[in-house]
Design a protein that fits this description.
alpha+beta, three-stranded antiparallel β-sheet
Length: about 210
């Protein structure tokens, strides 16, 4: 009986703590500055901030030769669009794969699985040059925090990734194709109390652009 109580306490205390002491969202007003960069070697992508206007972030993405790009994913709350300003980009949208050259517009509507990559030997540059070509500042913030973790050499980096992802909750509005969206949301909610107890934070100063 004592063992059961101890186990229940270990399981429930983090949940109660998470309920009684809610997380304060990060303050992101003016967080990004023009010219700041953050990158992922794993994806082969470098993002350079063009500007932040309120809760909208505009950036330029440079894909290194042979860059794999992000995993296939979708967003629930926002569309993505941009102009290819250099090179040839391979785009996958709803299982259709096409190659698009400089001057082409790319558009990824919310709720539709997509990804992109660079299968050439030259850099590809994608520029958010229209008013509609922005991502929410919260999402840009989570990417900047995630990229160093994605490139970590730690054998436990996927464990760290999932705990960190749970801390961000809906700010990280990206859901991979491999699992149902609702299942991914549920996993984040379940992990968050334990991530907090284990010391995971919403902010890591080393990951600031």
């Amino acid at each position: 009986m004592t063992t059961v109580l101890i186990i229940l306490t270990i399981i429930l205390l983090p949940v109660l703590y998470n309920m009684l002491v809610p997380l304060k969202p990060p303050r992101l007003d003016g967080y990004f500055k023009s010219g700041q960069t953050f990158s992922s070697k794993m994806e082969g992508v470098t993002q350079t901030i063009i500007k932040q206007v309120g809760d909208k972030v505009y950036s330029e993405l440079t894909l290194a030769p042979g860059a794999a790009g992000p995993p296939e994913h979708l967003h629930i709350s926002f569309d993505e669009s941009a102009t290819i300003t250099q090179g040839t980009l391979t785009v996958k949208l709803n299982n259709e794969v096409i190659e698009m050259g400089a001057g082409s517009r790319i558009s990824f509507p919310k709720g539709q699985y997509h990804t992109f990559s660079n299968k050439t030997n030259s850099e590809v540059v994608i520029t958010c040059d229209k008013d509609s070509d922005y991502v929410p500042v919260g999402f840009a913030y989570t990417l900047a925090q995630f990229y160093p973790l994605m490139d970590s050499s730690s054998k436990l980096k996927m464990v760290h990734f999932f705990f960190k992802m749970s801390m961000f909750g809906d700010l990280f509005d990206s859901y991979v194709v491999d699992a149902p969206v609702n299942a991914q949301k549920t996993i984040k909610k379940i992990l968050r109390p334990y991530a907090r107890v284990l010391g995971y934070k919403l902010y890591d100063s080393k990951s600031k652009p």
